[in-house]
């Protein structure tokens, strides 16, 4: 999607940002005194920080801060706390459920200036980065040390943002999500204190797991300013392959059986035939227009060969064709680039369209049912709806490629998405595998966990009694 | 340690339990109406539930309940909440830091009657058990299905207790701790509501991670009554080996290098020469009296062979002798039984002794320094102090084998332990890898996390405003 298409796509669902900042002159003066020209009320900068890559309405914050240290973040939060001004942490702006929309205005804190790699402990396979470091920058830095950080949500998100939304993506089937890969956090609390949630030890039983409490809290309990991560040695052998299937069910069943057998696949991504067609058009690939699995295997040469043999046998049993191999780094990058551009390829199916990526996750035994029933339900709709997913985790996305000039399409997508969430919940699944709740899944979370959400509200009230940290997200407050 | 030795060992550090229950007649009557003869104020039963396997003083609860369902637990908690009576969840009673001691009296809820395996979903590699199921009973149940649950803290603890203390043990280096292996919990809250923290999906970004908040909360936020766990297929090949080293440093460096190379060892346990000597006497084994590593490898035959080749080479480089193999199930069980009885073997070094197992965990790069400095510090002491550890995680234990008649030995152990905790913290480590805070590490937690503990207090106050759930543990309250 090019910039002008993007802009037109959004205009239809954008509430005009208030041109005037509603921040009090006193608050603005204090923030300006702290940050100098790294504090701004410029309408353009504000508007840029109210947009998001989603179907949710944009809304500008009243001001934007660009701190360069945890101390500056803490200073800004203390000023906002004194004046009761909402504070929204902002990374790459790639979240998908309106997670960074300042629904009650306030100060957006853009952390992209905090992009230092604080430490890499090669011997311990861990490292500490400021929240604004992107995953691509981190991996670029790590490559010469023979290390990598596996979590890969597709977008070049910041590590702080990935922690805040409990992101996962293509490597989670083998390496886990941000939940499993964050060792410790530096956090600015709602009253502007700076705390560290844990030490660098690989495991600890030292009190409540505050690290996991902030991971996935979407900035509603505090602002993550530094993240200590597990890192991994680059595997001796990495091998990727593509396999096209006669049926969607055959592709899904292949994955289910591989997981049940315990094959430690590093990545296994499903693209249905609609999505493959979109990728072919967008990335000029010539993949067969069939439901397709993208695999990646990590390990020693012998161990990878073993995994491949098993996958080849299972695929053949389920109507899979030959495995098309990519062993060189170049070929692998080409293959995964095609996968990573799937969202943009989907949007390009319909010039000027807005994308709405759904995100359910079910126990693997129900995955085939969930995808096939969803596909059948979508068949009634004229909206293009490619399906792709991190199927090894039971997680998949339908992308609604919606015409922003036709509100009836949004209404239809909303109905289809609600049914998809209900279907996943009925199968023991969750309303969001990795995108978070934000604004878009508030009702779905209630449907999923009911009264349990009251405990979340109680934790929120305890750690942010003024309700200034990214208010209005995850749940409705009394 | 036999029963009479155990009893005499404890007497020296036991405050006499109040022979009279301090529960009001009204509370007792309500609990008796709910539970019938599964509610008792018998002094013997109360005393039994105030003991623990540690150096901490015993203290009896005022009454003990034996519920058989989550609804009964909720009913009992509601009665206690109305009357402001403390509630302590109790499993196998094998925790080590006074975690279940009713320091303010109240009702101990013994969950061992809730020992049903609710569901095993073989296709999803997960299962749900009541909190009172022990890990050995679970594994017995799973064996015929070709599945196992790897977390193994040594003691035959209950799954609810293991979740509450964030237990780990010998398999954590490969499979993670309870933190990584609990998918969802059923919990009775401090006001007697029943909530479920999550669905069965392998991953989720649905709101705050309440599952991880209750895992490791030591019953201070609510009572876990059901646990949904990840399960694993029994590996095709399991191979165990013992390797004796010329020096403690050589043994530790072998582990450090193996971890840094990413060898997916399933278990790697260190026993120093003092501990090996104790095991030989206790279990009638004839292991060489040297620092020794116990290894276990899981995988396909080829993959295990690969791992073994690497370990053999690293061991030889670090003064390790031949690897002594145990491939049959019987031989492996014998070998691991020797390891698992290490604590009792240590106690038997000194008849009538009380054991005090310390528990620090450091980044792996500092493990050799931490163990060697600790060993040097211990050399000044006359107290027997075997060292053993889950060294793949950077976690190890010194067992102080203390004469309960000599309070000066407790004082000395306390000083040595404090220095060990300080040493671990100075190296970026944690005061507890797996035993939890309980009563014994309250000051250490403050030293480790400082002001961060205030956030834990705030969460506690939010979820248990009356402070009735296992009060007095983890931190001091205002």
Structural class of chain A: alpha+beta
Major sheet size, sense and barrel closure of chain A:
8 strands, antiparallel
Based on the structure, what is the oligomeric state of the protein chains? homodimer
Mean pLDDT of chain A equals 93
Number of domains of chain A: 4
- Which regions of chain A have little confidence, pLDDT < 50, spanning 5+ residues? 1-17
Largest chain-chain contact? Answer: A-B, 91 and 90 residues
CATH class of the largest domain in chain A: Alpha Beta
Distance between the termini of chain A: 40 Å
CATH topology of the largest domain in chain A: Alpha-Beta Plaits
What overall form of chain A do the CA principal axes indicate? globular
CATH architecture of the largest domain in chain A: 2-Layer Sandwich
Report the C-alpha radius of gyration of chain A, rounded: 22 Å
Work out the strand percent of chain A: 15-25%
SS elements, strand count of chain A: 19
Separate helix tally of chain A = 18
> In percent, how helical is the residue content of chain A?
25-40%
Biased composition (Polar residues) (chains A, B): 1-15
Region (Disordered) (chains A, B): 1-24
GO molecular function, one term (chains A, B): D-lactate dehydrogenase (NAD+) activity
InterPro entries (chains A, B): FAD-bd_oxidored_4_C, FAD-bd_PCMH, FAD-bd_PCMH-like_sf, FAD-bd_PCMH_sub2, FAD-linked_Oxase-like_C, Oxid_FAD_bind_N, Vanillyl_alc_oxidase_C-sub2
